[in-house]
Amino acid sequence: MSSNTPDITAEHTLRFDMVKTNIGNGYHPATGVFIVPVTGVYVFTWTIREDVHNYHTTQLMKNTEAVDVVHLSPNGRIGEVTGIAVFMANEGDDVFVETYTQFNAGYISSYPAGRSSFSGWKLA
């Protein structure tokens, strides 16, 4: 992410707009969605940074199914949490990170000293 998100609510798709590598153009930064180009086993990882009194639960989604969930509440400090998931995905599946249905307050941090990020690659 190029900058902090504004205050966000439940089930909000996160858009990671700083794209470093996008071979095949499967990731769409305007929507925050990766559309699986080829069926296979994929690895996805996401890191969420929080400042002081903000907290969020985020989940990696495959279409409408939550694949993995992480939570961060830094309690007056700056912190980060990373999730990683390995799973089978079919051509055309949508993979994205969204906030969970509850446990969200404030903004998600992303600035030059530390970025919130999302990445993925085909393993097999």
UniProtKB/TrEMBL annotation:
Q: Which domain of life is it from?
A: Eukaryota
Protein name per its UniProtKB record:
C1q domain-containing protein
| SUPFAM superfamilies referenced in this protein's UniProt entry, alphabetically | TNF-like
Identify the Gene3D superfamilies for this entry: 2.60.120.40
Q: Which Pfam families match?
A: C1q
| Primary location recorded for the protein, binned into one broad class | secreted
Q: Which PANTHER family match?
A: C1Q DOMAIN-CONTAINING PROTEIN, CEREBELLIN-RELATED
Q: Which GO terms describe its cellular component?
A: extracellular region
Tell me yes or no: is Cell membrane among this UniProt entry's keywords: no
Q: Which UniProt keywords apply?
A: Secreted, Signal
Q: Does the keyword Signal apply?
A: yes
Q: Where is this protein localized, as stated in its record?
A: Secreted
The residue ranges of the C1q domain are 1-124
Q: Which InterPro entries match?
A: C1q_dom (IPR001073), Cerebellin_Synaptic_Org (IPR050822), Tumour_necrosis_fac-like_dom (IPR008983)
